[in-house]
């Protein structure tokens, strides 16, 4: 039997209302682990509980495994917790200890823990100058990036002062496809493109020198043959006389 029951069919009137100037307007307490201090039920498509204030709804928990606010949805496309911000954040998570501000877990091993959609799907920023904007650990790949645009880039790395991309491994880089370098290619403090240019220039000079030597050698051979033919012609003429 319900200790207190209020009911009304009038539009804009509450079934039960509690007013307090110094404390809570309504307080509900429950001594059962499976119950709720206050429960709101709506069977007609509306909200079970609606709160309005500086914080619309506030939940607090001091249990080690508890949650300040818990939302549960069994719908196929429903959400456990939905946050909508007209100008600010849809959902804001703030951590004051060593735990993350926001943590997403999916118990399905092939599903996503966190999904971000927007002009920038996921934005990560570190407030520590030695920190990481985004840190990822994976089995096959720590980060998988895919671009569907013909002129897009799977990964774009930009650094204002240091290296745009730093890779460490064995090998440090593996490319399946063509590689294009717009700039200096430096390998162990050696300008590879500059070294190739120097080698090409030295090779061109060596070829030119070999061609000049062959020409000089050919001219000397022609001169020697010409002199031999002249001497032979003179001996023939002397024999005929």
Description of the structure:
With 241 residues, the chain is mostly helical. The protein has a domain at 186-240. It contains 1 helix and 2 strands; from the N terminus they run ββα. The protein has one helix spanning 192-240; strands spanning 186-187, 190-191. The chain has a two-stranded antiparallel ribbon. Strand 1 (186-187) and strand 2 form a beta hairpin.
Give keywords:
two-stranded antiparallel sheet; mainly alpha; 241 residues
Helix-strand layout with pairing:
Layout: E1 186-187, E2 190-191, H1 192-240
Antiparallel strand pairs: 1-2
What is this entry, summarized?
The protein is mostly helical and 241 residues long.
Query: What order do the SSEs take from the amino end to the carboxyl end, as H and E?
Result: EEH
Query: In order across it, which strands form the biggest sheet?
Result: 1-2
- Cα(first) to Cα(last) distance is 157 Å
Q: Which consecutive residue ranges, at least 5 long each, have pLDDT under 50?
A: none
Task: State the share of residues found in helices, binned by percent.
Answer: 10-25%
Mean pLDDT: 90
Instruction: Evaluate the radius of gyration.
Output: 42 Å
Give me the count of strands. 2
Q: How many helices?
A: 1
Tell me about the largest β-sheet. Answer: 2 strands, antiparallel
Global geometry: rod-shaped
Strand content: under 5%
SS-based structural class? Answer: mainly alpha
Biased composition (Gly residues): 41-56
Coiled coil: 204-235
Region (Disordered): 41-71
Keywords: Coiled coil
């Amino acid at each position: 039997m319900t200790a207190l029951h209020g009911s009304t069919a009038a539009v804009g009137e509450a079934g039960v209302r509690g007013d307090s100037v110094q404390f809570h307007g309504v307080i509900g307490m429950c001594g059962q682990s499976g119950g709720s201090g206050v429960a709101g039920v709506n069977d007609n498509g509306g909200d079970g509980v609606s709160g309005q204030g500086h914080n619309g709804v506030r939940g607090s928990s001091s249990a080690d495994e508890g949650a300040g606010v818990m939302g549960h949805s069994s719908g196929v496309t429903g959400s456990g917790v939905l946050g909508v911000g007209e100008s600010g954040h849809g959902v804001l998570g703030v951590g004051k200890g060593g735990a993350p501000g926001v943590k997403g877990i999916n118990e399905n091993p092939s599903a996503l823990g966190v999904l971000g959609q927007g002009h920038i799907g996921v934005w990560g920023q570190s407030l520590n100058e030695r920190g990481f904007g985004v840190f990822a650990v994976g089995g096959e790949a720590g980060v998988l990036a895919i671009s569907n645009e013909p002129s897009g880039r799977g990964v774009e790395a930009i650094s204002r002062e240091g290296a745009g991309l730093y890779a460490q491994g064995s090998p440090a880089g593996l490319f399946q496809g063509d590689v294009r370098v717009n700039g200096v290619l430096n390998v162990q403090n050696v300008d590879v493109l500059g070294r190739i240019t120097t080698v090409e220039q030295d090779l061109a000079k060596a070829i030119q020198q070999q061609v000049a030597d062959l020409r000089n050698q050919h001219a000397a051979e022609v001169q020697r043959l010409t002199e031999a033919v002249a001497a032979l012609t003179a001996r023939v003429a002397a024999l005929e006389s």
